[in-house]
Amino acid sequence: MHIEVLKDLFETHKESRLYHRYITNAHIQPLFKKLESKMTIETIGLSVLKKPVYGIKIGSGAKKILMWSQMHGNESTTTKALFDLINTLSEDLDSTHHILNACSLYIIPILNPDGAESYTRVNANNIDLNRDAQALSQPESKILRQAFNAFKPDFCYNLHGQRTIFSAGKTNHPATVSFLAPAQDEQCTVTSNRKIAMELIAAMNATLQMVIPDQVGVYDDAFNLNCVGDTFQSLNTPTILFEAGHYANDYARDITRKYIYMALLQSLDHLALNRVEGVNYQPYFDIPENDKCFYDIIIRKALVNSEKNGSYCDIGLLYQEILKEGVIAFMPKVAKMGDLSSFFGHQEISAHGQQVLNADNKKLEVDSENVVVIVNNEKISLLLK
């Protein structure tokens, strides 16, 4: 699909009622009314706290794709992108008609509604659902497995979000979108099944490089059968991990959603128009592996002590995401102090060899929260602008 078509479709069909980071059942339920006449929307189970988990069926084609988002409740960017995609496919468009004829989608927009409401990674039993694929100890894990068994997908899309620390390789480029074709055995064998997933990822990467060059990464493929992606891959269903990451100044992740949307729609277009058999998998290995090269803020060359010939250090801060009255706030917290010359800051501040103090005129400490710092008697806000 042409890049300009993808851009136009996003701008036309972006779901404006979903924005920022806090997305729950209460946010998506009002969207169903305009969609229910065009697709099947059903409750497929209940969470630990008895909240509904929804499934959405759209398309009539033979190629079946199962997608799920917010397995981790605080990873909502892909949920926004899914509804942008659903809005697009809900209309009879010349540019997407072939997708609905060739593909059938089953979408679980929020697998972990309890975690979404409390804005936590885990479910209400404090279990990471992405480590419960074998034990199936949680109702949400069983719901996903039942959907998998009933739908019998040809492809699985496991949709997540990643932290701002990740870079595309050891570079000053954030990993705005990341992928993985999970391993299906301990040896991480490049099986025919994985090659199919790799081919799809390569196709999406080719598109994304036109809009976010050098900002796509892949994850290490270490095998863990307790992870859902590894389990489904081991069941011989080509599975792709999607990770929505950071774009410059986009802490709301309302720009990143665009690139997830473009990747999703491009993959469906590729599936609809091609026999995807894994022949064109090799470009997958050209995508750099994710590294952890970023802090949200780095304060450079801070004076450690005021003695003659005093030593200097860098101060790395990360934002902590805090739910306050239905809104996600970002609290700066000192993560590390030392030589951070091999790291990058999404924001960088120079202390010019001066002491850096907190609001109480005391030295900063690791794990301390600081909304402002004082450098040479000047207050500098660390809050997002």
Automatic annotation (TrEMBL):
Gene3D superfamilies named in the record: Zn peptidases
Sequence ranges assigned to domain Peptidase M14 in this UniProt record: 18-271
Annotated catalytic residues: E243 (proton donor/acceptor)
Cofactor: Zn(2+)
Record InterPro entries: Peptidase_M14
Superkingdom classification of source: Bacteria
PROSITE patterns: PEPTIDASE_M14
Family listed: Belongs to the peptidase M14 family.
Alphabetized PANTHER family for the sequence: OS02G0119300 PROTEIN, PROTEASE FAMILY M14 CARBOXYPEPTIDASE A,B
Protein name: M14 metallopeptidase family protein
